[in-house]
Write a structure and sequence with these properties.
The mean pLDDT is 93. This protein has helices at 14-22, 31-35, 42-50, 54-62, 68-74, 81-84, 87-90, 96-110, 132-143, 160-163, 172-183, 201-206, 237-248, 272-283, 304-312, 401-404, 409-437; strands at 124-128, 147-151, 188-190, 211-214, 220-221, 234-236, 264-268, 288-292, 316-318, 321-327, 337-342, 345-350, 353-356, 360-361, 396-398. The protein has three domains: 14-110, Orthogonal Bundle (Fumarate Reductase Iron-sulfur Protein, Chain B, domain 2), CATH 1.10.1060.10; 124-219 and 362-436, FAD/NAD(P)-binding domain; 226-240 and 258-359, FAD/NAD(P)-binding domain (3-Layer(bba) Sandwich), CATH 3.50.50.60. It contains 17 helices and 15 strands. It is 37% helix and 14% strand. Bound molecules: iron/sulfur cluster (SF4). Iron/sulfur cluster binds next to helix 2 and helix 3.
Length: 438
């Protein structure tokens, strides 16, 4: 079993990247672009890359994306751009994700593009949360001439990119480089600052912000009702991944991460978070990791490539199976055993820990401390079409997973881009009215 967190997918060398880019047919109606949720101008930047114009390629990507080194690594390319590439029908699609990653990494390493910092004259925006949605909204608004400040509860910015997606899929240095580029646009970060605890939304308005963007994601994991689920040997995947990340970055000690060497781990669920938790448990030294899923392989929401990698790393999968009982001594941090039901047949197996990855929902910290932000029955923030993304509270906008239900990084980015446009229109209109009424 693998025991290190080094990035698993290798990057192109420069000649390899150019050769791959030269295979592109530059389709007049590019189906790859249609498959991209943020309509990245894929053939245009691939054409620049094919000619060796790396800076131009980067500038074209930046027109649509604030996080290309991230998207190049973690997007579901097989279901989006690459899955739609015409070359895939006859043979091998263009490896668009790997090329995007190459362009972004090459640009950072060589320091090729330096965006001009726009004058901040259109207004002040507070962004809550610095995951994909918050960073995208902040980058887009800063480029349009707004003074943007991000409020982040963790000791480092990045949200799920820093504390949810493991190092071997998305190295933290890559996230830090992307964040640095956004900081270079003049965006200010306030870390270890929780809105709803340190400040309220009303405090932010009192500080002079013209609009507020909530990109707070879905930080509260869902629970199953299984006898024994409250035992300390049972943990939530997003909390486990966060703690491993904090440990890897020196914020926690090894003994503060539950999974120890030789532990036997069972992961409930089969989305990408479940696979991330399973592969991370392998890297933390577990002797055996098993994913337990109540449906079949064809129903799992995890990417096939992630599943294949997990299998190659020794993770086992139990389909049409559920954990129906969890047992452990009350004073022990570890479990004794669990009972698994597979198609009606029950088996008792030894287990040290169960990790649950069955979805998550938004925290209520902000809406419970702010008047007038309506949510649906499950706690997702309700927003409107005009101005796009505004909540029922004037000037407070929301976007990404906190309104959409947990989706992919690029879908959160797409939503944040549209909301940034809505915020710009709203602030401009309010300031125009103020001028007229003076
Ligand atoms: Fe190039 Fe494939 Fe896009 Fe056509 S669909 S432009 S071949 S990447």
């Amino acid at each position: 079993m693998t025991h290190d967190f080094k990035e698993v997918n290798e990057s192109y060398t420069l000649p390899e990247a150019i050769r791959e880019a030269q295979r592109c047919l530059k389709c007049k109606v590019p189906s790859c672009k249609k498959g991209c949720p943020i309509s990245n101008d894929i053939p245009d930047w691939i054409a620049e890359l094919a000619k060796g114009n790396f800076g131009n390629a980067m500038s074209i990507i930046h027109n649509r994306s604030n996080l290309p080194a991230v998207c190049g690594r973690v997007c579901a390319h097989e279901r989006q751009c690459e899955g739609n590439c015409v070359l895939g029908k006859k043979g091998q699609h263009i490896n668009i994700g790997k090329l995007e990653r190459f362009v972004a990494d090459f640009d950072s390493d060589a320091g090729l593009t330096h965006e001009a910092i726009p004058e901040k004259s259109r207004g002040r925006i507070a962004v809550i949360g610095s995951g994909p949605a918050g960073l995208t909204a902040a980058g887009d608004l800063a480029r349009r001439g707004f003074a943007v400040e991000i409020f982040e509860m963790e000791p480092e910015p990045g949200g799920v990119l820093m504390f949810g997606i493991p190092e071997y899929r998305l190295p933290k240095e890559v996230v830090r480089r992307e964040i640095k580029k956004i900081e270079n646009l003049g965006v200010v970060f306030h870390l270890n600052t929780t809105i709803g605890e340190n400040y309220t939304v009303d405090d932010l308005f009192a500080q002079g912000f013209d609009a507020i963007f909530m990109g707070t994601g879905t930080g509260v994991p869902k629970k199953l009702s299984i006898p024994g689920i409250e035992h300390p040997g049972v943990r939530q995947a997003i909390r486990f991944l966060r703690r491993v990340s904090l440990y890897e970055n020196g914020f926690l000690n090894r003994n503060e991460v539950i999974v120890g060497k030789g532990d036997k781990i069972f992961v409930i669920g089969c989305g990408n978070t479940a696979i991330d938790a399973a592969r991370t448990a392998v890297r933390m030294g577990s002797s055996e990791v098993t994913v337990v899923y109540h449906r079949t392989i064809n129903d799992m929401s995890a990417l096939r490539a992630e599943y294949d990698d997990a299998v190659a790393e020794g993770v086992k999968f139990l389909w049409k199976s559920s954990v129906v009982e969890i047992d452990g001594k009350p004073d022990s941090p570890k479990l004794d055993h669990i009972v698994i039901d597979t198609d009606g047949e029950r088996t008792t197996v030894d287990a040290d820990h169960v990790i649950m990855a069955v979805g998550s929902a938004p925290a209520s910290r902000i809406v419970s401390t702010t008047e007038g932000i309506d949510v649906d029955g499950k706690g997702y923030v309700l927003t409107r079409e005009t101005p796009y993304g505004m909540t029922s509270r004037k000037g407070v906008f929301a976007g990404g997973d906190v309104i959409n239900r947990p989706a992919t990084v690029v879908h959160a980015m797409l939503d944040a881009k549209l909301v940034a446009e809505g915020i710009a229109q709203y602030v401009d209109a309010v300031k125009l009215l103020e001028t007229i009424n003076q």
